Amino acid sequence: MASVDVALATISFKRKIAYKTTWLFSILFGGWSLLAGLAVWSHLIGDGELGGYDWPAMKAYLIIGFLTSTLAWAGADWEMANRILDGLIAVDLTKPIDFQRARAAEYIGGMTASVPAAILGTVAAVLIFQPAAPASPLAAALTVLSLLFIFPLAFGVNYLATMACFVTQRYLGIQWARDCFLAFFSGMMVPLALMPGWLQGIAWGLPFVHFTTTPASIYLGRVDALGALGLIAAEAAWALGLWFGTRLVWNRLVKKVTVHGG
């Protein structure tokens, strides 16, 4: 099965880079969002600090948010949704391939296509804006490890969202809702430190927080090494929980499959 996974991931990767204009536009849009965030927060923070972030730390936070959002939104969620909406899933069910595993391979392949541009954009932002350095070499290494877990975590969140297509027969509204939840509860929009305590508690109980707040907290040393390992363990637990949880959802919802015209 490993060879099949690699083949599916490779096809998805090539499909993503084949549409170079769309691919580059998504990166440029993320770059403009980063610039807008830097402009806003530079005025809000000035020479002081806000929520425990001074200006160099906030620049690092925003750049990490740019990197994680570029990766998180780079997968093939619409391809997964369309297989359900167009009835292609009926064909998938006849194949001797696990549907979830096949979609995971395709999704990871699509995300991988964004890695070179995301890294280049991040390096350029670091050179231009000179954010705070990582708290320590260990913090830098643990940050990279936390970023790697974004791949399975993003697939789990997006796969769960596409499962709703069995019920709604639409995906656009689901995508908008997912993006809003991800942007807000991850801390991409507003750092969690600036939210009321009860809202922070809700955010830490959801998987979205690990897309931005977790790697940024580790990088800036807002948690010690043990705390960083705990956050990474939570990421891994969410990735596994979503994998097996969506499997249960699949077993129930696949019974609702309808194919128009037959």
TrEMBL record:
The chain crosses the membrane at residues 23-46, 58-76, 107-132, 138-161, 181-206, 226-246. Keywords: Membrane, Transmembrane, Transmembrane helix. Coiled coil: none annotated. It comes from the Bacteria. The keyword Membrane applies. InterPro entries: ABC-2_transporter-like. This is ABC-2 type transport system permease protein. It comes from Glycomyces sambucus.
